[in-house]
Write a structure and sequence with these properties.
single chain, about 200 residues, mainly alpha, Jann2411-like fold, two-stranded antiparallel ribbon, 6 strands, about 45% helix, about 10% strand
Length: about 200
Protein backbone atom coordinates (compact mmCIF):
# COMPACT_ATOMS: atom_id res chain seq x y z
CA UNK A 1 0.00 0.00 0.00
CA UNK A 2 1.38 3.35 -0.99
CA UNK A 3 0.70 6.63 0.67
CA UNK A 4 0.31 9.88 -1.18
CA UNK A 5 1.07 12.00 1.89
CA UNK A 6 4.57 13.14 2.60
CA UNK A 7 6.13 13.08 5.99
CA UNK A 8 6.60 16.63 7.19
CA UNK A 9 9.67 17.45 9.22
CA UNK A 10 9.09 18.07 12.90
CA UNK A 11 9.79 21.77 12.99
CA UNK A 12 8.86 23.38 16.24
CA UNK A 13 8.30 27.12 16.32
CA UNK A 14 10.99 29.17 18.02
CA UNK A 15 10.50 29.47 21.74
CA UNK A 16 9.29 32.87 22.88
CA UNK A 17 11.84 35.01 24.68
CA UNK A 18 11.04 34.90 28.42
CA UNK A 19 10.14 38.26 30.03
CA UNK A 20 13.22 38.27 32.29
CA UNK A 21 15.43 37.77 29.22
CA UNK A 22 13.63 40.59 27.39
CA UNK A 23 14.32 42.83 30.39
CA UNK A 24 18.04 42.03 30.36
CA UNK A 25 18.27 42.68 26.63
CA UNK A 26 16.33 45.95 26.91
CA UNK A 27 18.45 47.19 29.82
CA UNK A 28 21.70 46.37 28.02
CA UNK A 29 20.44 47.94 24.79
CA UNK A 30 19.39 51.16 26.54
CA UNK A 31 22.73 52.32 25.15
CA UNK A 32 22.82 52.00 21.36
CA UNK A 33 26.43 51.97 20.15
CA UNK A 34 25.49 52.04 16.48
CA UNK A 35 23.29 55.15 16.76
CA UNK A 36 25.33 56.62 19.64
CA UNK A 37 22.25 57.13 21.84
CA UNK A 38 21.74 56.48 25.52
CA UNK A 39 18.39 56.23 27.32
CA UNK A 40 20.06 56.61 30.73
CA UNK A 41 21.81 59.98 30.51
CA UNK A 42 19.75 61.88 33.10
CA UNK A 43 18.09 61.07 36.42
CA UNK A 44 14.54 61.58 35.02
CA UNK A 45 15.37 59.28 32.07
CA UNK A 46 16.46 56.55 34.50
CA UNK A 47 13.25 56.85 36.50
CA UNK A 48 11.15 56.81 33.31
CA UNK A 49 12.99 53.77 31.90
CA UNK A 50 12.55 51.77 35.11
CA UNK A 51 8.86 52.77 35.33
CA UNK A 52 8.18 51.96 31.67
CA UNK A 53 9.72 48.49 32.09
CA UNK A 54 7.67 47.63 35.17
CA UNK A 55 10.53 47.84 37.67
CA UNK A 56 9.00 50.77 39.56
CA UNK A 57 5.37 50.89 40.67
CA UNK A 58 5.46 54.69 40.79
CA UNK A 59 7.90 57.31 39.60
CA UNK A 60 10.40 58.30 42.28
CA UNK A 61 13.27 60.74 41.99
CA UNK A 62 16.65 59.22 41.17
CA UNK A 63 19.87 60.62 42.59
CA UNK A 64 23.13 61.12 40.74
CA UNK A 65 24.43 58.10 42.67
CA UNK A 66 21.48 56.03 41.41
CA UNK A 67 22.23 57.08 37.83
CA UNK A 68 25.91 56.20 38.17
CA UNK A 69 25.00 52.83 39.68
CA UNK A 70 22.51 52.09 36.87
CA UNK A 71 25.14 52.83 34.25
CA UNK A 72 27.67 50.70 36.14
CA UNK A 73 25.13 47.85 36.27
CA UNK A 74 24.50 48.15 32.54
CA UNK A 75 28.24 48.10 31.79
CA UNK A 76 28.70 45.06 34.04
CA UNK A 77 25.81 43.28 32.35
CA UNK A 78 27.23 44.10 28.90
CA UNK A 79 30.63 42.72 29.95
CA UNK A 80 28.92 39.57 31.21
CA UNK A 81 27.12 39.08 27.88
CA UNK A 82 30.42 39.54 26.05
CA UNK A 83 31.87 36.88 28.40
CA UNK A 84 28.98 34.57 27.44
CA UNK A 85 29.83 35.12 23.80
CA UNK A 86 33.60 34.76 23.92
CA UNK A 87 33.64 32.00 26.52
CA UNK A 88 35.85 33.89 28.99
CA UNK A 89 33.16 33.59 31.70
CA UNK A 90 34.53 36.70 33.42
CA UNK A 91 31.65 38.18 35.37
CA UNK A 92 33.77 40.28 37.76
CA UNK A 93 32.32 43.66 36.67
CA UNK A 94 28.77 42.39 37.24
CA UNK A 95 29.77 40.91 40.61
CA UNK A 96 31.27 44.24 41.69
CA UNK A 97 28.10 46.22 41.03
CA UNK A 98 25.88 43.44 42.43
CA UNK A 99 27.52 43.93 45.82
CA UNK A 100 25.87 47.38 45.92
CA UNK A 101 22.38 45.97 45.21
CA UNK A 102 21.64 43.50 48.03
CA UNK A 103 18.97 40.84 47.66
CA UNK A 104 17.19 38.66 50.22
CA UNK A 105 15.43 35.31 50.04
CA UNK A 106 11.70 35.53 50.66
CA UNK A 107 8.55 33.55 49.94
CA UNK A 108 6.28 36.57 50.25
CA UNK A 109 4.78 37.70 46.96
CA UNK A 110 7.20 35.75 44.77
CA UNK A 111 4.57 33.54 43.14
CA UNK A 112 2.40 36.45 42.01
CA UNK A 113 5.31 38.29 40.45
CA UNK A 114 6.53 35.28 38.49
CA UNK A 115 3.05 34.11 37.48
CA UNK A 116 3.43 30.73 39.16
CA UNK A 117 0.89 29.07 41.44
CA UNK A 118 1.62 28.88 45.15
CA UNK A 119 4.20 30.70 47.21
CA UNK A 120 7.79 29.69 46.82
CA UNK A 121 11.10 31.13 47.95
CA UNK A 122 12.65 33.70 45.67
CA UNK A 123 15.01 36.65 45.60
CA UNK A 124 13.65 40.08 46.49
CA UNK A 125 15.32 43.52 46.64
CA UNK A 126 16.43 44.64 50.09
CA UNK A 127 16.12 48.32 49.12
CA UNK A 128 13.13 50.24 47.79
CA UNK A 129 12.92 52.89 45.09
CA UNK A 130 15.45 53.17 42.28
CA UNK A 131 17.96 50.80 43.87
CA UNK A 132 15.25 48.23 44.45
CA UNK A 133 14.29 48.53 40.78
CA UNK A 134 17.91 48.03 39.73
CA UNK A 135 18.09 44.99 42.03
CA UNK A 136 15.30 43.46 39.94
CA UNK A 137 17.71 43.42 36.99
CA UNK A 138 19.97 41.17 39.09
CA UNK A 139 16.98 38.97 39.92
CA UNK A 140 16.41 38.64 36.16
CA UNK A 141 20.04 37.52 35.81
CA UNK A 142 19.50 34.90 38.51
CA UNK A 143 16.30 33.68 36.85
CA UNK A 144 18.10 33.40 33.50
CA UNK A 145 20.86 31.34 35.11
CA UNK A 146 18.27 29.12 36.83
CA UNK A 147 16.29 28.38 33.63
CA UNK A 148 19.46 28.07 31.48
CA UNK A 149 18.64 31.02 29.23
CA UNK A 150 21.62 33.00 30.56
CA UNK A 151 24.20 31.42 28.25
CA UNK A 152 22.05 32.39 25.26
CA UNK A 153 22.39 36.10 26.04
CA UNK A 154 25.20 37.59 23.97
CA UNK A 155 26.57 40.74 22.36
CA UNK A 156 26.66 40.97 18.57
CA UNK A 157 30.14 40.39 17.16
CA UNK A 158 29.81 43.26 14.67
CA UNK A 159 32.00 46.10 15.97
CA UNK A 160 29.59 48.71 14.63
CA UNK A 161 26.59 47.07 16.32
CA UNK A 162 27.36 45.51 19.75
CA UNK A 163 23.62 44.88 20.29
CA UNK A 164 22.56 42.45 23.02
CA UNK A 165 20.55 39.52 21.65
CA UNK A 166 19.10 36.13 22.58
CA UNK A 167 20.71 33.22 20.73
CA UNK A 168 17.91 30.80 19.79
CA UNK A 169 20.11 28.33 17.90
CA UNK A 170 20.17 24.78 19.21
CA UNK A 171 23.92 24.77 19.93
CA UNK A 172 24.12 28.46 20.96
CA UNK A 173 26.48 29.23 18.05
CA UNK A 174 25.00 32.48 16.77
CA UNK A 175 27.55 35.31 16.65
CA UNK A 176 25.48 38.22 15.28
CA UNK A 177 22.22 39.75 16.36
CA UNK A 178 20.79 39.44 12.84
CA UNK A 179 21.71 38.20 9.40
CA UNK A 180 22.63 41.70 8.19
CA UNK A 181 25.40 42.08 10.78
CA UNK A 182 26.83 38.69 9.86
CA UNK A 183 26.69 39.52 6.17
CA UNK A 184 28.53 42.81 6.71
CA UNK A 185 31.24 41.04 8.73
CA UNK A 186 31.67 38.35 6.08
CA UNK A 187 31.94 41.00 3.35
CA UNK A 188 34.60 42.92 5.31
CA UNK A 189 36.58 39.71 5.90
CA UNK A 190 36.35 38.76 2.22
CA UNK A 191 37.58 42.20 1.12
CA UNK A 192 40.45 42.08 3.63
CA UNK A 193 41.55 38.65 2.32
CA UNK A 194 41.40 39.85 -1.31
CA UNK A 195 43.39 42.98 -0.46
CA UNK A 196 46.02 40.91 1.40
CA UNK A 197 46.32 38.55 -1.60
CA UNK A 198 47.12 41.42 -4.02
Amino acid sequence: MTSTSRATPDVSPPRPVPPHVELLIAFTNSEDHELDTDDLTTRPQLTQWLFDHGLLERRVAATEGDLALARQLRAGLRDALVANHDGSLDYSALETVAAQLPLRLSGSGVAAEQGQPGLQPGLRPVQDGIRGALSRVLIAVNTAVADDTWRRLKICSADDCLWAFYDTTKNRSRAWCEWGCGNKAKTRNYRARKKAAV
